[in-house]
Amino acid sequence: MAAALVDLITGFLTESAIEWEPGARDGEIVASLPGEKKLKTVVSLVVDEVALSVSAFVIRNPDENHAEVYRFLLRRNLRLPGIAYAVDATGDVYLTGRVPVAAVDVALLDQLLGVVLAGADEPFNELLVLGFLTSMRKEWQWRVERGEPLHNLEAFRSILERPGDPPRAVR
After folding, report:
1. Burial 38-53 (b: 16+ CB within 10 A, else e)
2. The model's pTM
């Protein structure tokens, strides 16, 4: 049954034009889901005889405001079907889930990957502001002082910009 599910998953990913490759563990498939705020979300799908386990990195351990970040994530957990935010031993944030093998079909797989992508991509900028604003301000100031490009911080210009900073980049 596990081999058939691996075939179902790889077929679905291929038909959906989602980049994937075999993982390092038996039954593991690693897929890259393209995002808008977070450029991509890498998802590990591990199939064994009993379940399909899903895991995706969201953000590293926040530099600040841990309680606010975790409260934000716990509230979002209430709306995530089949997946939940979790924190590893180092404080990095992941989305994780586990589904019985017998329940997995193309429709569930599509929903599961959609929830993972939404859970990693939609709140990404807000999580960065909650957990890394001081670092972002330092990075912005460093780039402005040295005339470095600001393009990767443009989404945060409204909270980082100070009088005298260069005008918005022309695209």
Report:
1. beebebbbbbeeebbb
2. 0.88
